[in-house]
Amino acid sequence: MGNRKYEIDTPENREFLRDQAAQLIRFGKAFPSPAGSSYWLGDDGTAWKDRDRQTWITARMAHVYSLGTFLGIEGSRELAAKAIHGLLTELHDDEHDGWYAGVHADGTPFGTKQCYAHAFVILAGCSAMLAGIPEAAELLEKAEAVYDRYFWEEETGLSRDTWNMEFTEPDSYRGLNANMHSVEAFLADADITGKGYYRIRAGRIIDHVIAWASANEWRIPEHYTSDWEADLECNKDRPDDQFKPYGATPGHGIEWARLITQWALSSFCGDREGAAPYLGAAQNLYRRAVEDGWYADGAPGIVYTTDWNGQPLVHDRMHWTLAEAINTSSVLYHVTGREEYAADYAAFLAYLDDKVIDHVHGSWFHQLDQNNALLETVWPGKSDLYHATQAMLIPTSDCSVSIAKAVRDSITA
């Protein structure tokens, strides 16, 4: 028998997850700048005040500390409120609407208007509103309006990726990373506000992704032209790009599998026959990604990218891929009861505990090399807590509901 703290649904496993979630949330408490935007966190949780303060990180921190509010972790409500305020003030473009990519250390705004960041603002607004955070409803209302006006393409059932700062020129690039986090945000919005059209939008995006992936041996093409033609050679010269890496990204295949499962369970409400094609697609995505990525080069961990034949390209282990593997293996086990997912979950948690958790300073190492030694070429320090915190909560939560509502409901039940 293995270590019971890694075995899904055991009391020891629940205690391990609960303790790790609390440690993560305590680790990040130094994130807010005076105006509320999020500092990038260093290895020991101190704020790197000379770095840019990003909208997407601030929104994630608002979400995480809303979760901390439900968990009863001291100071979480106040920290969530600071992040929400930062999103409404120094990170918001009062002249052209929407959110800057971020602000420099001196407070000067920069960057394009990114669908990716705006999706996280919606998620932050939803979670914080559920937590009763002041200004959250105002934030969500503004975020929905901007997203609907500039990013959602009703005719295609997909989202644009990027505009210039003035919202006058859309970029020609289209991508699935922003659409993936839009699905996450849409499901949260539908759960928390009751606006069912957001769940319908999520389903439209999902239908595209399943069609594209199933035609490509369940490896998801990530990058597209303006008319949604797959660009399989995109960024071949920058294979380890933070957000647009070349080739297939196993971590995203895993993450999509969980979101598809959540959407199917929430949309078909017990109709297993209706949900079955989507649950099957989710399992195909997960299995392809794990077969391609996990232990792909003789060492534990999930490689960052592969080529279109499933051969590893960037061997680095990013912490977020492991977090999503923990999430999705637990969700698929609870949905199907298949022991293979429980075995994967136990293996992922053992690897997490052995290699990825920083048992000295706290939080998780964000990037390791193929030998599982610390690497900081793409993700120096420990920028935020979103993926890691969710991975400690999703395995014990209702997998048909967005995480903030699931955690809130479990605490108040």
Mind explaining what this structure looks like?
It contains 13 helices and 15 strands. The protein is mostly helical. The strands form seven sheets. The protein has a three-stranded antiparallel β-sheet. A two-stranded antiparallel ribbon has the order 1-2. The protein has a two-stranded antiparallel sheet with strand order 6-9. Strand 12 (305-306) and strand 13 form a beta hairpin.
Strand elements, count? 15
Radius of gyration: 20 Å
Low-confidence stretches: none
Judged by helices, strands and strand pairing, the structural class is mainly alpha
Distance between the termini: 33 Å
Q: Helix and strand succession?
A: HEEEHHEEEHHEEEEHHEHHEEEHHEHH
Question: DSSP helix count?
Answer: 13
Percent range of helical residues: 40-55%
Side by side, the strands of the main sheet go 3-4-5
Main beta sheet: strand number and arrangement?
3 strands, antiparallel
Topology:
Elements: H1 11-27, E1 40-41, E2 47-48, E3 53-54, H2 55-71, H3 76-88, E4 102-103, E5 109-110, E6 113-114, H4 115-130, H5 136-150, E7 152-153, E8 158-159, E9 162-163, E10 174-175, H6 176-193, H7 196-214, E11 223-224, H8 250-268, H9 272-293, E12 305-306, E13 312-314, E14 317-318, H10 319-336, H11 339-356, E15 367-368, H12 386-391, H13 403-412
Antiparallel strand pairs: 1-2, 3-4, 4-5, 6-9, 7-8, 10-11, 12-13, 14-15
Helix pairs in contact: 2-3, 2-4, 2-13, 3-4, 4-5, 4-6, 6-7, 6-8, 7-8, 8-9, 8-10, 10-11
